[in-house]
Specification:
With about 220 residues, the chain is mainly beta. Helices cover about 15% and strands about 35% of the residues.
Length: about 220
């Protein structure tokens, strides 16, 4: 990995968009591949590890993160104000090889906060794209994606929106050449199994909590 270091960036937006889900915009100059992520450090407590947060959207002078508040670190992140600074390291990860998908029929399959990287992905794909998104109860980010996809299919565990059940229950693989997937590991495992049965090419976005980001501490191993 090329030498990288943390840089301070200014928060220009940090808002709650759904229960426990926040959108943060930071200002700066950014270049990254679709599907990559940044390590985010926003704690005064030096004993806390940075958090890997995927790129939700990116423009020349703005980077957008979508994140779920699940513990102490992301709770602190959600309390940051406009004008505050955070430190970021990246871009990191392999990203999706989007040039391979030109002209193809592609399904984006997301579970919960796994929808975060799908917005920037949908924007950049030169393909025929549908979205399958599964949530527990409330839905988010789907409206922002409408102009970049052909069809959108939603499921919720509670049945409040769309199909009641799992997103894999409404995924019709017969219509697609490729599947790009991000979400809980149990969901991605099922999607991979389904794609193997139908012989459909599938890419999954994996993540782990990590410390060094260079493979030395081994906690990133999936």
């Amino acid at each position: 990995m090329e030498n990288k270091s943390y840089e301070k960036v200014e928060i220009i937006l940090n808002e709650k968009i759904s229960e426990g889900i926040y959108k943060m915009d930071v200002k700066g100059e950014f270049k990254a591949k679709v599907g990559q992520f940044y390590m985010v450090k926003c704690f005064e407590d030096g004993t806390m590890l940075p958090r890997p947060i995927s790129i939700c959207d990116m423009e020349d002078n703005k980077l957008t993160f979508l994140y779920a508040v699940v513990g102490k670190g992301t709770k602190i992140m959600s309390e940051k104000k406009v004008g505050d600074n955070i430190e970021i390291l990246g871009p990191l990860g392999n990203g999706f090889p989007i040039d391979e998908f030109k002209g193809k029929k592609v399904a984006l399959v997301a579970g919960g906060i796994g929808i975060a990287p799908m917005l920037y992905l949908a924007k950049k794909l030169e393909a025929d794209v549908d979205l399958y998104a599964g949530f527990r109860d409330e839905i988010y980010l789907t409206n922002e994606m409408c102009e970049y996809i052909n069809e959108g299919y939603v499921s919720t565990n509670t049945g409040k929106h769309g199909h009641k059940g799992f997103v894999t229950e409404i995924l019709d693989l017969d219509k697609y050449d490729t599947v790009l997937c991000c979400g809980p590991e149990v969901m991605m495992k099922r999607v991979v199994e389904m794609c193997k049965e139908k012989q459909v090419k599938v890419y999954v976005s994996m993540e782990k909590h990590m410390a060094c980001v260079v493979g030395a501490c081994l906690v990133c191993t999936c």
